Fold this sequence. Notes:
This protein has 4 helices and 17 strands. The chain has helices at about 5-15, 35-40, 150, 260, and strands spanning about 45-50, 55, 60, 65-70, 80-85, 95-100, 100-110, 115-125, 130-140, 160-170, 170-180, 195-205, 210-215, 225-230, 235-240, 245-255, 255. Strands 1, 3, 5, 6, 8, 9, 12, 13, 15 and 16 form a 10-stranded mixed sheet that branches.
Amino acid sequence: xxxxxxxxxxxxxxxxxxxxxxxxxxxxxxxxxxxxxxxxxxxxxxxxxxxxxxxxxxxxxxxxxxxxxxxxxxxxxxxxxxxxxxxxxxxxxxxxxxxxxxxxxxxxxxxxxxxxxxxxxxxxxxxxxxxxxxxxxxxxxxxxxxxxxxxxxxxxxxxxxxxxxxxxxxxxxxxxxxxxxxxxxxxxxxxxxxxxxxxxxxxxxxxxxxxxxxxxxxxxxxxxxxxxxxxxxxxxxxxxxxxxxxxxxxxxxxxxxxxxxxxx
Length: 264
């Protein structure tokens, strides 16, 4: 027997369509995945392209396993989130960074699986996003090659190792971190996805400086540089965790940068 829908409900459904995603701007790079990625990363939030989001990288990827990218949006006020992604990678998102008490600056190395747009996007306090980036030529295969530490067979001996330095000059404090991790993407036969997943930076009093979410598209043995709000003599506490629960931890004392570096 057919079910009868109340007339009031039927009328409401007729005039209340499902909410649509916010209209994305036309992609100046002409990426075939822009619409899908925009819906995934930005949802209903307003989006516009803005060259003040500086995405710095080589035009050609000499090493598709480890490609350097910097997102610098320090010239924009009110940034509360920074993401880095490569459109045509099988794992597009590389890093999602919340600079709680830090500059809108992030530098790292990622894998590239083919020629692709590489982009940085920042979210402002009003929820809107600013996006920039460009095409990078890459031979490909960066996400489907086994990490070198797997080939050497010594990767498990170094899990949990982290090195770092925190230096302060007139431009602020830079914290550079280097983790030992294979960063498996899951695209190599019989090797499941396995990656460093989170890194938290805090002051000695426990207050947050920033939170970094990391995906397997970040290069093996990840290196990450950020610019937290800290002065010479401050201590910065880091805590990281990978997808298997291996912990990374350490404390860095902020030191004055050597004169040669501070002069840059």
